[in-house]
Specification:
14-stranded antiparallel beta sheet; four-stranded antiparallel beta sheet; 1 helix; 49% strand; disordered N terminus
Length: 337
């Protein structure tokens, strides 16, 4: 029997409605990607409750796998090797107001590790998590990475089992070092789920700035790094979102859950529509230090021509409402829409 304490589940609410059977409600809660015209509001959610759609190299596992309780019950995912997502699709235009990507990752710090007999991970076992940006022509521009390592040694970052994390534009042992003193490394000694968040924004002078924030399971910010390069000029060298990726993973298992992109997207290639589909839903999502809500009704005819509407509203300081005028695509992929 494991004596690991079950992590508390973050305050999280989704309210869904549908004219279709209950199974459709479940799939919407698991994954949602919506495409509307031109600068379109698009949201990607994947909580791995009904599969891994939108991800590549990810394996769905039930709660309790490797003694880890899913952050969003009853399933989460593990990295099957360089797991990545395109957040529903690459985007060529940087949206007004920027956008945010995030993922929950389990930091397994204390014994037992995976099973009652497993030893601790080797000192300096690493993983990298990166969220990248595209150019306006949909090519790769730059990565923004969390560089994380598990350590059992003693130095200025601490002593005993712990994760040490920093941020950079590089990944891998040849390009990054979690303990790099010039990168303001942060130490975590408490096991559990943590949110790794990228906030892509204009620095106020037309240059891209990315805030990389680690939050605990209660959503409280623990550490933030800001990366910015003066050559990353929005609209000139910088376009929209690219991928989220684990380019480095030296652990025997790495659990993750609740991945999302929140913002506006102008897809490089609009996903094809599924004929005779229909989705109706709504809910709220975390947004900065407040929340945003949305509602939608989208359907396609027998030829795959989409129609419908989507309304998105920021609450709190942002206080803005955006309504779509045209739906350009509705794609149903197994248990995901």
């Amino acid at each position: 029997m494991s004596n690991k304490k079950r992590p508390s589940l973050r305050s999280w609410s989704r309210r869904w409605s549908s004219a279709r059977p209950r199974s459709r409600k479940i799939l919407i809660a698991a994954c949602l990607v919506l495409c509307t015209s031109i600068a379109a509001f698009a949201t990607f959610f994947q909580t791995f409750e009904t599969g891994t759609s939108g991800w590549f190299g990810a394996t769905q596992v039930p709660t309790g796998t490797h003694l880890i309780v899913s952050d969003t019950l009853p399933f989460h995912a593990e990295d099957g090797g360089s797991a990545f997502t395109r957040w529903g699709g690459y985007s060529e235009t940087f949206p007004v107001g920027g956008y945010t990507t995030s993922i929950d990752i389990y930091l397994d710090i204390s014994a037992p590790y995976g099973n009652a007999l497993a030893p601790a991970f080797d000192n300096d076992t690493r993983f990298d998590w990166t969220s990248a940006i595209s150019t306006p022509s949909c090519g790769h521009r730059r990565d923004f990475a969390f560089n994380a390592g598990f350590y059992t040694d003693t130095d200025s970052t601490g002593s005993g089992p712990r994760f040490v994390i920093s941020a950079s534009n590089n990944t891998g042992r040849g390009g990054a070092f979690p303990k790099n003193p010039g990168r303001n490394p942060y130490t975590i000694t408490t096991e559990g789920w943590y949110t790794f968040e990228h906030r892509f924004r204009d620095n106020g002078f037309g240059v891209l700035a990315v805030d990389l924030t680690i939050r605990n399971d209660a959503g409280i910010p623990l550490m933030m790094w800001t990366l910015s390069d003066p050559s990353d000029i929005i609209g000139s060298t910088v376009g929209g979102n690219r991928y989220g990726w684990f380019p480095t993973d030296e652990f025997p298992y790495l659990a993750f859950d609740t991945s999302m992109l929140v913002g506006f997207q102008d897809y490089c290639q609009v996903p094809p529509s599924t004929a005779s589909g229909k989705v109706t839903g709504g809910g709220w999502i975390p947004w900065l230090n407040d929340k945003a809500s949305f509602g939608l009704t989208v359907k396609t005819d027998s030829a795959g021509n989409p129609s419908g509407n989507l309304t998105y509203q920021d609450h709190g300081v942002s206080a803005r409402t955006v309504k779509s005028s045209t739906i350009t695509s509705l794609t149903l992929d197994g248990n995901c829409a």
